[in-house]
Structures are given as C-alpha cells and as structure tokens.
C-alpha cells in the first residue's frame, strides 16, 4: 500500500493538494486525527492500494506522534511519503484576509492570526523536517497543482533533486536546503535587447556563456552537489532543494538552474522550477518595446502570469 501524508500550515494550499491527490486516484481523507491513521490503513488494506491523508494542527498536540506512526506503518510494509506545504507569514496573513476565514487555532490562541501561525509552526516543526517541502508563498493554485503532479511522477524510494531559480527581491524560498547567490555575475537586464527575455532564451544563454565566471560558478555548485548528494541520500532524505537567486529571478538564476538541470538529468529524480520569471516577464512586457531582434517564441517553464484574472488563493 502507498500512503501519502499531506501536512503543512493552514492557508498553504492543502485543500488544493488533497484534491490533486484524489483526482490522481488516491483514497483521500482530510483532517484525520493522527491517532486514527493506523486503524484507517488497517481497515482499507485489502480494498485500497493508495491513500492520501491530510493532517495538520487541527489534530492538536497529538500531531507530534506522526513520526512514530510513520515508523510503525513502514515496519508493516506500508510505503509512506510526506508532503509538507509551507509559506511565508505575510503570504498566509494575506490569504486569510482575502478569504475572511478564521484560523483553525483561533479559538485556542489569542493574539490574532499572526499568533496562530506562530503556534502552528511550532506544532508542525518536526513534521516539516520529514517531508518533501514545498514553499507556496508565491504559487498560484494552478502552479501548486502542477508541482504536486510532477512530484507524483517521481520514484519516491529515491531522493528527488529540485533546482529552483528565484529573485532575492521577492524573498528566499522557504523550502531551499542550499541557496546560491548569482547577483555578482554580469546582468543581462542592462542590455535593452535582452531585458524582455529570460535565462532560457538563446540570446541570454550566449551572453552568459561569454562570461567565464558564469561557468566557474556553475561548476562549483555542481561539484558541491555531486560531492554531498550521496550523503543526503543515505540519510533517507525525501528531497534536496538547490535554489539559485539573482535580483529578479529572470536571467542569471534561470540560466544557471537550466545548466545544472541538464548536468544532473541523467539517471536522477529531477524537478525544475522557475519561481519568479513569469512575474518578471509580465512586468517587462508592460514597459518594454519589442524590437526585430527580440524573439517572440520564447518558452518559459514557470508559474502563470499573475496579471491574469487571479484564482482564489490556496487554502
């Protein structure tokens, strides 16, 4: 039997994620108390092969027993995986304000939503270290759906390696295990012909390839990962997130992440995300004047344009 345990902070997108798992064929249960997980699995073992259970702070302090529950189920032959959804406090506060929903801990914790979030982080801290962690702070519901679907395709018995580009001006990803700063490299942004493009476009790649420090920096990151990845795998880590940042997350970090993904693609569990490039290109599109030298067929692997009509925020 395959068991996926979905946890994370309230407002981080668990309702979106559990629906994706249900649509993928999992027997889905929301807000099941930790003490009932083992009995549910036992009752379904002969009739269901895939179960997804959402667990969070609504279970109270009993949620702390989840690591023990996972160990016991694994010993019985159940394949257990954990997804943990996280988000910055300001993103969570904004979502609760937009939806006008009370925090699940509001009746037990005084001090407003911010105090509830802080208490929930404390309660779930140990679980956060066990799972495949996803930062949904800047993700639309559709982007989160895509990330969950990509994760489902992985062989979860092996460590998953995720490369993510981002812009420092939008904040460091919460789910990053290692962060590399590419802001010291020459910036294609200051070339008017390259400004409306991304690090995946040929002219930007050519610009970056002409700078010796770009290859040196990329080589250093790759060597670091190659040296220590086996140690993380032996530690039974679900995944390892390598984040590369530049100022806006449009050119330098995107280029380096694409180069790293190409180097590590053979025989490895690999995910690639470009967190901020869609927003950056949207901004450029509103101020840049297209020229004959700028390709119009650039393909971007990123979250949807937030200038479009927004969906209801993840909750």
The chain-level structural class is alpha/beta
* Gross geometry: globular
Radius of gyration: 21 Å
Assembly state (oligomeric):
single chain
What's the helical proportion of residues?
25-40%
Per DSSP, the total helix count is: 10
| Stretches with pLDDT under 50, minimum 5 residues | 286-313
Q: State the total count of DSSP E strands.
A: 9
Report the average pLDDT across residues.
87
Question: What's the SSE pattern?
Answer: EHEHEHEHHEHEEHHEHEH
Share in β-strands: 15-25%
The description of the largest β-sheet is: 5 strands, parallel
Biggest sheet, strands in spatial order?
2-3-1-4-5
Give the end-to-end Cα distance, rounded to a whole number of Å: 28 Å
Describe this structure in words.
- The protein has helices spanning 14-23, 37-44, 66-75, 89-99, 112-128, 141-152, 202-209, 212-234, 252-264, 277-287; strands at residues 2-8, 27-30, 50-54, 79-86, 132-135, 160-167, 178-181, 239-246, 269-274.
- It has 315 residues and is of the alpha/beta class.
- A five-stranded parallel sheet has the order 2-3-1-4-5, sandwiched between helices.
- Mean pLDDT is 87; it is low at 286-313.
List the keywords.
alpha/beta, single chain, globular, 39% helix, disordered C terminus, four-stranded parallel beta sheet, five-stranded parallel beta sheet, 315 residues
């Amino acid at each position: 039997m395959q068991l996926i345990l979905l946890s994370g902070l309230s407002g981080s997108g668990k309702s979106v994620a559990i629906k994706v798992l249900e649509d993928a064929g999992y027997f889905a249960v929301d807000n099941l108390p930790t003490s009932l997980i083992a009995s549910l699995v036992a009752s379904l073992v002969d009739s269901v092969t895939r179960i997804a259970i959402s667990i969070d702070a609504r279970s109270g302090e009993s949620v702390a027993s989840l690591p023990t529950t996972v160990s016991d189920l694994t010993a019985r032959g159940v394949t257990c995986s954990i997804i943990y959804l996280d988000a910055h406090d300001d993103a969570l506060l904004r979502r609760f304000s937009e939806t006008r929903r009370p925090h699940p801990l509001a009746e037990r914790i005084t001090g407003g939503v911010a105090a509830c979030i802080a208490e929930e982080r404390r309660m779930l801290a140990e679980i956060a270290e066990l799972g495949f962690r996803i930062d949904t702070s800047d993700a639309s519901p559709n982007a989160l759906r895509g990330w969950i679907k990509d994760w489902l395709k992985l062989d979860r018995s092996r460590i998953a390696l995720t490369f993510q580009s981002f812009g420092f001006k939008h904040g460091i990803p919460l789910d990053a295990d290692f962060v590399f700063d590419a802001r010291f490299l020459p910036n294609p942004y200051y070339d008017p012909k390259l400004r409306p493009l991304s690090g995946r476009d040929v002219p930007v790649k050519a610009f970056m390839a002409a700078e010796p420090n770009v290859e040196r920096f990329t080589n250093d990151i790759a060597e670091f990962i190659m040296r220590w990845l086996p140690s993380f795998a032996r530690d039974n880590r679900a995944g390892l997130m390598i984040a590369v940042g530049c100022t806006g997350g449009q050119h330098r970090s995107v280029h380096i992440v694409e180069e790293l993904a190409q180097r590590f693609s053979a025989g490895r569990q690999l995910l690639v995300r470009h967190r901020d490039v869609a927003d950056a290109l949207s901004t450029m599109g509103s101020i840049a004047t297209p020229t004959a030298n700028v390709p119009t067929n650039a393909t971007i692997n990123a979250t949807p344009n937030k200038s479009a009509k927004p969906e209801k925020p993840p909750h």
